[in-house]
Amino acid sequence: MSGAGLVLQELVIGYRRVPLLPPISATAQPGRVTVLLGPNGSGKSTLLRTVAALQPALGGSATLDGAPLAAIPPRSRARSLAVVLTDRFDPGLLRGGEVVALGRRPYTGAAGILRADDRAAVERALSALHAESLADVPLAEMSDGQRQRILIARALAQDPALLVLDEPSAFLDAPGRIELLAVLRRIAEDRSIPVLVSTHDVEAALRAGQDGWVIDGRVLRTGTVDALRENVIGPAFATGVVEFDSELGIFRLRRPHSSQPHL
Amino acid sequence: MTTVGAVEGIASEVSPVAVHRRRRTVIAFAAVTVLLVLVLGAALVVGSETVPVRDVLRWLTGSLPADEPSRGLIEQFHLPRALTGVLAGAGLAVVGLVMQTLFANPLADPYILGVSSGAGLGVAVSVLGTGNAAVAFVSTFGVFGRWGTTAAAMTGALVVMGVVLLAGRWISSVVSLLVVGVMIGAAVGAAVSLLLAFADPVRLQKYVLWSLGSLDGTYLGDLVVLGPVVGIGVVLAVLVSPSLNALVLGERYARTMGVRVRGVRVVAIVATSVVCGGVTAFCGPIAFLGLAVPQLARMLLRQADHRIMVPFCALLGAAVCVLCGIVAALPGTAGTIPLNVVTAVLGAPVVIALLIRNRTLGAGG
Fold this sequence. Notes:
- The complex is a heterodimer.
- Chain A is an alpha/beta fold.
- Chain A has helices at 44-51, 74-80, 96-102, 116-128, 144-157, 174-191, 202-208, 225-231, 233-237, and strands spanning 6-12, 14-15, 18-19, 24-28, 33-37, 59-64, 67-68, 81-84, 162-166, 195-199, 211-216, 219-224, 242-245, 250-253.
- Chain A has a six-stranded mixed β-sheet, with helices on both faces. Chain A has a four-stranded antiparallel β-sheet with strand order 4-1-6-7, with no helix packed on it. In chain A, strands 2-3 form a two-stranded antiparallel ribbon.
- In chain A, a hairpin with a 2-residue loop joins strand 2 (14-15) and strand 3.
- In chain A, helix 3 packs parallel to helix 5 (144-157).
- Chain A is globular and about 60 Å long.
């Protein structure tokens, strides 16, 4: 399964021919969790949606194990690329297991009938997220965290060669965010696939992420999380009031004498 | 039923929830089938003139003599009404379900969103606008004949459906979309009024009566048109039902699972317009059935899978519509009341209950 992973070459993202950032070149390696960091509104979701071929690139390419993702027919693409979005929806009477089973859609025939290997994939996905007990629970009755686990299990059921997640921890509490990243790390390792996850939670990303893509102003900087911690994260997120402590990996208020916060 | 088995397999072979759900599905299907048979039997018996049950049984076994007055009553009035009810009810319920998923909105329905009004305008243009002097309204159908009027109704439905769907892409709020539907309904109503203002008074009265909804205006010959029309719509709905399941998660999620959303949407729109146009041409714009039946089906089945919901809604819609037709015929009296009076009495409380309980009953399947 392991190939070159996800490779962006001079990829230009944006809307209506207006680029959001200069051309991006970066790699997400198989077996590793790559965290996409950046302040709100910096273009994280646009980048992920472009990678997922949900919106067209303005230039350049995103290839997965050598194949350009945008050129693959939708059904085959859904077998190699699975996505967890921030989109909210009304689940009605859908139950956890049914949602995960939808992930087999790119493999099943016109009637959507699950065969034994489809059911096995669903079961594997549920157990990877420790969500077996949620199979019969209606989504409408789940907590945000449980719902998120089901949606990630649904993506895993697609047996993807690349897993992309947009802000999956937005509605989770602090321990939940770290735990989620740990789960993603195990998924990346077990399946030898790249996992690309955006978050604006820098602290959790630094604790549980491995590689990082950081949108710093209008530039994407890449490297291991440890390397980025030293001299990229701080400038990218610091404001007049808050500074980044690269040793502890946390944000804190600037001391009054080190700068003049306008409070 | 495949998903019932599938989910069972996921949980474990003895998951009590899954077993319970399968049993519920089987019982619900059996019950609604029995209900449909019963109301069909009743529909053959009752009407402005009652046919003795004995005669209906003899007719069913083919032993009712041709010169018996009951025979004419059954074959010319009661049977067409019953079969029209089956087709209209099944079609509208399935189309209502499809629209609710397509709009991600539990209140979507061809009548509320103005699609039936669009079909009505098509009929009005075809019949009132052609200057045809025919007096009998539904049976004569202007210069274009049955197919022509049906096609005009479908076109009207298609146009409104397209406009509302387009509006729905920018308007996510349930209430705003309903307002759009009401506005389109009002605009279309104005156009119809304009046509009526210049229409011959006799035809005007016929149009008004038709617009109140009725299952009585059809002859067995009309079912040659209505049958295939509803059949096509239901088959199309069945074909897209696995994709509709994925669409419950939203358009973008569906796309990431390989669903060709645009194609599914086109098929769903065509199915809706065909069924709504066909039914409206023959029965008038029937209110609330498309909304109430899928919701009723959800309450009975507690299921989201469209592959189960589509056939169930068809059966339940048929039974409910035939039943409404029986009530509208005011058994034992010479008069009838408009079908929409009956369906509104059933449907209005469902709409109100939905607006109140909007969180618990979703659009999902």
